[in-house]
Amino acid sequence: MQRKKLRYGMVGGDLNAFIGGVHRAAISFEGKAFLVAGCFNPDQSANRECGEFYQLADDRIYADYKEMAEKESKREDKLDFVTIVTPNFLHYQVAKEFLSKGINVVCEKPLCFELEEAKELEALAKEKGLLFCVTYGYSGFPMVKLAKKLVKDGVIGDIINVNAEYLQEWLIDDIGAGDISTNKLSVWRKDPKVAGISNCVGDIGTHIKHTVSYITGLKLKKIAAKLDYFGQPLDLNANILVELENGASGVFCSSQVCVGHANGLVARIFGTKGAIEWVQEDPNYLKVTLKGQPPQIYNRGMGYVTGRASELNRIPSGHPEGLYEAFANIYKTYINALLKKINGEELSENDLDFPTVSEGAEGVKFIHAVIESNKKQSAWVNL
Amino acid sequence: MQRKKLRYGMVGGDLNAFIGGVHRAAISFEGKAFLVAGCFNPDQSANRECGEFYQLADDRIYADYKEMAEKESKREDKLDFVTIVTPNFLHYQVAKEFLSKGINVVCEKPLCFELEEAKELEALAKEKGLLFCVTYGYSGFPMVKLAKKLVKDGVIGDIINVNAEYLQEWLIDDIGAGDISTNKLSVWRKDPKVAGISNCVGDIGTHIKHTVSYITGLKLKKIAAKLDYFGQPLDLNANILVELENGASGVFCSSQVCVGHANGLVARIFGTKGAIEWVQEDPNYLKVTLKGQPPQIYNRGMGYVTGRASELNRIPSGHPEGLYEAFANIYKTYINALLKKINGEELSENDLDFPTVSEGAEGVKFIHAVIESNKKQSAWVNL
Amino acid sequence: MQRKKLRYGMVGGDLNAFIGGVHRAAISFEGKAFLVAGCFNPDQSANRECGEFYQLADDRIYADYKEMAEKESKREDKLDFVTIVTPNFLHYQVAKEFLSKGINVVCEKPLCFELEEAKELEALAKEKGLLFCVTYGYSGFPMVKLAKKLVKDGVIGDIINVNAEYLQEWLIDDIGAGDISTNKLSVWRKDPKVAGISNCVGDIGTHIKHTVSYITGLKLKKIAAKLDYFGQPLDLNANILVELENGASGVFCSSQVCVGHANGLVARIFGTKGAIEWVQEDPNYLKVTLKGQPPQIYNRGMGYVTGRASELNRIPSGHPEGLYEAFANIYKTYINALLKKINGEELSENDLDFPTVSEGAEGVKFIHAVIESNKKQSAWVNL
Amino acid sequence: MQRKKLRYGMVGGDLNAFIGGVHRAAISFEGKAFLVAGCFNPDQSANRECGEFYQLADDRIYADYKEMAEKESKREDKLDFVTIVTPNFLHYQVAKEFLSKGINVVCEKPLCFELEEAKELEALAKEKGLLFCVTYGYSGFPMVKLAKKLVKDGVIGDIINVNAEYLQEWLIDDIGAGDISTNKLSVWRKDPKVAGISNCVGDIGTHIKHTVSYITGLKLKKIAAKLDYFGQPLDLNANILVELENGASGVFCSSQVCVGHANGLVARIFGTKGAIEWVQEDPNYLKVTLKGQPPQIYNRGMGYVTGRASELNRIPSGHPEGLYEAFANIYKTYINALLKKINGEELSENDLDFPTVSEGAEGVKFIHAVIESNKKQSAWVNL
């Protein structure tokens, strides 16, 4: 019998967490997967409160994620996938645990801290034949899909230069702050034990890297980076020269101390025949310029927007879709792929158009290269 | 015992319908109301398919909305509210049926065709003590809430002029089209039997009216309108002079034949001390200018955004929220109000900050005045 | 012998005047006309100071414009044209004087106060065979020329709707001001003796009318207007329904009390095949949308910009041209036409592409119709 | 006797030249300096045609710039200054010649090719007590002046990061072009003998450098650059990491092959208390964001715009000023300073607010550092 719906569990993301709620709402858009189990918080009161709100069976509100992986893997009505939305430093161990038990995984980025860990997870998913998604949410926006399609179709020719940035302002008060405990909001992002070796590049710089690679279909060949710490243990500002695998040059600028920018992810891709520009804060549009012609402002949902961008369009053009819908698109793709897989259908390339564990591993590699280059006086470091 | 969750039903909105899906996704954001019954389509195959997809109990997939109102009203676990997303011409009769049976109602706009019907529904809801929401979805955007607050707080002084528009292009091919059957997409909007006495003003012009009245807190005193039909039975283009109840002048422009505009609802409100501008296609921002100062671009989610706009904020500033989230805000408010009411709590003005049946009736009145003015050579018609 | 350069005189516009300086700088761009005579100010000290600064011959700094017209008309090296930049109420009499003496005229707008005066000037120029330019400066912008060309070439099809506005904020403090003498800056604009029967519509509303008629090639058939005076003797705010001679509808909004708008002339022209939008505050661009295609942002100076817009382009694309250059374009055209005429060459339609006395007369007619309609409860008034 | 007007000459810039015309028009804005001598083109027919058009005395149309410097220096009514608008490779020798003869110099950028030459010119001007202006035209825009003032006044705190770019598209066809002769338009920019050691960085990258240094008041400490040549003899694309003298980081991106960008000079300056952004293609505005507040869009000419930006404002806010006016501002400042100097008045810092020979020398140093860094695998090179 064909499965039409999936069961999922969640690790992390109690009722007060931000990103957990985004994931749950995103999954609910299609009504094709239901939350049945969870281990939302080491604090058992918060954990139970969340489980009860979602009306989970009592024995599926787990105090411990290992227990959850173990017990769920043995149920007949076990989880089809688990979503991991814990703090960064737990991603690796939680993902590994569920993969080991044969459960498909969706994990927030960064995938993990060490490249070896990333490789291990990648290998484990492959060995077990599981679908592993790393939620680079911005790649779920339809106009990012369109950008990828235009590049692939050769519309802008060969890529010769990229200029991408992710600028925020929310940690500006950390400059000159005496120690990492002064800013409660950001302390866990600045503590290497919790956040890993990088703050700014790890948290948002990786999104630049992913977005550019996703759109262009090109990996990074090498980078040369200069980071600014402003007296803090982890980086707050990064300016990075890059070279893509095809020899194209570019810069990535990532910052959490640029006043005037809330969440300014911008990707500008320049080719021999044209250019495209996508701005996350205005995500329903894509600026496309062909050589010798006026810039064109493509609008999500119009008839001239085709391919994946069209398939994933939800509401008529001019009615804005936002971040929730982008996440919902990633889950829609992942869940449909998983349904097909479970039902024994073959998966096409389009079916698998969600960010994978390999892309997560690429992100980890990028972070390490940037840190290394900065230590070596901005020398080029290969990826 | 305190109720924490609600049960709802839906009339209209099968799996292929656009707006029904938006309503269901919007409701699911908070996880506080569950679909338990429905009458989604007169076509019983489509009706059952939808009910089954949402795993409704067999006896709660109704073939007829009257039967649904009747039977649900007698269940112990009956609907807390019904959402009506049928074609326009059915709104009145369906809403009346459910109100009569004591069930709270959420209804798509336009509320109904005739002012008498609107008054009847308004009275019925009052008599039965029911909460009736008309989903003017755009008023759910946080920055519209902020605009309302700024006006109320006197930040822009007394309102002296308003300039608002709602421009679309999607019916451009109807110009010169031989008869209403040529454009399958829009035929039901152009047929007076189905769409009512107005197409363009009824469908989108009412949103201009609602948005301006909502932000300014001012009703319309009178209007003078010129409509264009381009050979079709219903209007496709409208230019309207308005006067608000405080004597402020303005214009409303509503069109479905303005190429280059997908869904261009824009409200510009001018006061003696300042001005505000909100653009639906870029809804996370509000342009606020105080006399003698540079324009400021307020950004959803920032610390300086307070009041309802802050309460309804979902994700950090710079992460775009779109139409789904605006609808979700309306449902969040409505559902919380209903929960409070059911649980015997008192409702504050903020609790009731969702578009009501009275606002729906105002919309109907506006449509009739516009049609009348156009027939009278754009003479002023009082509302 | 071929003339290569022209001699001009000026009435009004001493060293402290704003618009006089713009005219002189605009004329100097091409180096084809030189100031040789003037009557800059009734105050003789200011008058002489200005004449001396420009190194005029002593006997060509005139105390009286009548004397100037008389004496200049008799010189062998007489003026080829005079530029009139006096306060509005003097335009008619000064223009008439110079025309009578056979001297070509460039006059600031509004041409005059009464339609009969306008007709008289028009007839006089025709009778004398003189070139008469009324400086509607905005029509000198290359992208306005391109807009006109695109409409003429049928690119956007038949015009069906226009939406144009000219919003300023600089008289906001006049609202509630006790009498017209409180605001020194604007007093002469609010005094009917000096400014004529209208302030806001006369000063800026006429630019909307001219811009729309220039771009579309269509005259106004009728208008229905509502004006706001806010207790002042002349209008400060105007909302106007319009119908063009081809039956297209539209609105013109003109205001000097809209906070947040410095000099917001915007023309949006909608046709059956496309639409164009031009924004004076960002004048080097033209937004052009063809039905079913993404909006395109045409950029002045690019290869795809042809016709008059290309001929009048001065510097490479991306280097902004502003109001001075727009005025310079009008003078360039006028001076070249006058040179051709003087040299006995034939004048093409393009040669005469500057705003004429007939367009000035149209503007006067428009002002009167608006005032009349407002007095008649916004009844339609034919032009 | 007080001098009120100046005499100037020009080397280069015949009637067909682009930038020469801009300089002449810019000078004519104020009417305070008159062209009296020139050596416009080695082609004597073009040379005479230009001189005659400007009605120069026959003996002041020079065939040779050395002769011009020599003869003019001996006249009683000699040049007060000369403007040099020749191809780049001639700047040094022409400037040297006129300085040697005691004539003040205005020179297009780049000042020269070699740092030693720059130092020599700087020393010579100092020794002779002459005013030497290098026309970095963009620094004449009022809003650039305002940016500088805001930084100086501490409004945005300490500078911590800069992100600036100058993107053009006009040489895109050079990519893959067989040799430098294929594109007539750009051949002289790609020939090292004529253009110097750099094309893209020399022509436009230096404007980034100058704009950032001018606004921040900070010199560059070091740079790390990656250039792209795409098979051509000189660079077409540059991505550069920078460090300012106060330790702030940043990137400069300069390109002539970025489709979609006509003349995209953009400077974004980030400080500990705020940020400013200026966009050359929209030069009448300045985006200013203070920490924790909404971005503000400052508009040229408004009351809140003070200092030099206000002094140099020409026309009311909302009437766009462009590149000509920016150049005119530089000349206005230079000419007024020269008049004061000639008249024996003291010069304030504001009087000398035009780009100097020292700034020209800084530009030459920057170009050499960038070329060196690129050769050394993007190693940091000190300035």
From TrEMBL, chains A, B, C, D:
Pfam families reported in the protein's UniProt record: GFO_IDH_MocA, GFO_IDH_MocA_C3
SUPFAM superfamilies xrefs: Glyceraldehyde-3-phosphate dehydrogenase-like, C-terminal domain, NAD(P)-binding Rossmann-fold domains
GO MF terms, alphabetically ordered: nucleotide binding
PANTHER family reported in the protein's UniProt record: CONSERVED EXPRESSED OXIDOREDUCTASE (EUROFUNG), OXIDOREDUCTASE
InterPro entries: Gfo/Idh/MocA-like_OxRdtase_N, Gfo/Idh/MocA_oxidoreduct, GFO_IDH_MocA-like_dom, NAD(P)-bd_dom_sf
Gfo/Idh/MocA-like oxidoreductase N-terminal domain mapped to chain residues: 7-135
Protein name in the entry: Putative dehydrogenase
Domain GFO/IDH/MocA-like oxidoreductase: 145-277
